[in-house]
Specification:
433 residues, globular
Length: 433
């Protein structure tokens, strides 16, 4: 019988103080592409693209180079090195860039986009063998405007999620398991600290239902059931973060099958074969089960009725949460609508609230009888309020200057783009110096 796994700790108990662990330090060691003369040039070119600050990428380092060499065969890297983030390339254009027949390039693109999910394909797919080719089998005329275009995904968010979301721990191959190990080694370097404070508030956590039940200040955007009512299509996949920790022997044992897409995104996820369809009733039940296991649900910080996605997160595994609770760095999480308020006359300083917090946002000294709320780490989930149900010393209180979710994807991008571009330029300059 396998030994039970032990999840990563978010908080620690040091003598009589219950609170967050000391923050981890950035350990990434930047290098130059010229430091890898033994690595084939095609891998170095792909690593250069993935390290771009526009992709929120890590610097060139040993961990990145090892990950790239695992993700791609040398032949695949030869094609992927031509792919951009914003401008898509057709199979005809890629065949021309590689000086190879289209019939040889298309299977590589199919493998990368439909099996490995390392690159993204968008637009209508041409029937195999119908692309323009010359008499010698090479790519001929320019590609039609409506042909499928391919882009190289960022490492995270992007490659990490898409590579794992359609799998269960049982279906992971040795290739996937090695990918998990190499990705986690890269994440643990703390390279994401380079972008600290510059990422847009792209996600927002919803308070658990019981924490704001019947609260007069709760908004429709705070309530999971009302948010789901906007959509007719739902799809579910596996949590990549908890699966990663389980593969590494650090799983927390909480349910995996609760990553969800809605609306148009759900239809496309099912069509691509990376998620399974569920009904609205099943979707709500899955999310409520996640809350019952001490997880919290987030949505994209946009009031979109076309497409939406939602993860159910735990502080010990979720990479978005760990950026805050392990590295003590500002993440891309929107400020919450509700924060816990303490009634000190009711508090017994037992520390249950601190133990329940997935972000390490509460510190309690059980001997000195002090309670500290670390607001910059708090996501307003309300799990601390549920942990204090007996004493009722905590209650959720609305934040006066709360900002509603963005009305559209355009407004989010327009608001975030200037800061993101500035930070990308700063990171680029720092790495070149």
């Amino acid at each position: 019988m396998a030994e039970p796994q032990r999840g990563r700790r978010v908080i620690e108990i040091h003598q009589h103080v219950i609170g967050p662990r000391p923050p981890k330090l950035k350990t990434v060691r930047p290098r130059r592409l010229s430091d890898y003369p033994h690595v084939p040039a095609v891998y170095r070119e792909v690593a250069r693209r993935l390290s771009s600050p526009l992709r929120v990428g890590p610097p060139i380092c040993d961990e990145l180079m090892a990950l790239v060499q695992h993700l791609f065969t040398e032949e695949e890297a030869g094609v992927a090195r031509h792919l951009g983030l914003f401008t898509g390339h057709s199979s005809v254009q890629l065949a021309r860039a590689e000086h190879r027949p289209l019939q040889q390039i298309q299977p590589i693109l199919d493998r990368l986009s439909e099996e490995k999910h390392i690159i993204a394909g968008s637009g209508p797919r041409k029937e195999k063998g119908t692309g323009p080719v010359g008499p010698d089998g090479s790519a001929g005329a320019s590609a039609p405007a409506d042909e499928q275009r391919y882009r190289l995904l960022p490492i995270m968010p992007g490659i990490f999620e898409m590579t794992l979301i359609s799998h269960t721990p049982e279906s992971l191959t040795d290739w996937h398991r090695r990918f998990v190990e190499l990705f986690e080694a890269l994440y643990d370097t703390g390279y994401s600290l380079d972008y600290s404070g510059s990422l847009p508030p792209g996600v927002r956590y919803l308070p658990v239902e019981k924490a704001i039940d019947a609260h007069p200040m709760a908004l429709p955007s705070d309530k999971l059931e009302i948010v789901l009512d906007q959509f007719d299509a739902f799809a579910v996949g596996q949590c990549q973060c908890r699966m990663t920790m389980q593969v590494l022997g650090q799983g927390c044992g909480k349910p995996l099958g609760n990553c969800m897409t809605m609306g148009l995104w759900a239809e496309r996820s099912v069509e691509a074969g990376v998620m399974r369809p569920v009904s609205k009733k099943q979707a709500l039940e899955i999310k409520r089960e996640a809350e019952a296991h001490g997880m919290v649900n987030w949505m994209m910080n946009v009031q979109s009725s076309r497409g939406q996605c939602s993860c159910s997160c735990c502080g010990c595994c979720c990479h978005a949460m760990r950026m805050v609770n392990e590295f003590n760095a500002p993440g891309f999480i929107a400020p919450p609508h509700f924060l816990p308020r303490l009634d000190s006359s009711r508090c017994t300083y037992c520390g249950k609230c601190a133990k329940s917090c997935p972000m390490g946002a509460i510190a309690v000294d059980t001997r000195q009888k002090t309670h500290q709320h670390l607001r910059h780490r708090c996501i307003g989930c309300g799990l601390c309020v549920l942990a204090c149900a007996r004493q009722q010393a905590l209650a959720m209180e609305p934040v006066p200057d709360y900002r509603l979710p963005y009305r559209s994807w355009f407004s989010l991008i327009a608001h975030a783009a200037p800061g993101a571009m500035l930070k990308s330029w700063q990171v680029w300059r720092q790495r070149r110096s």
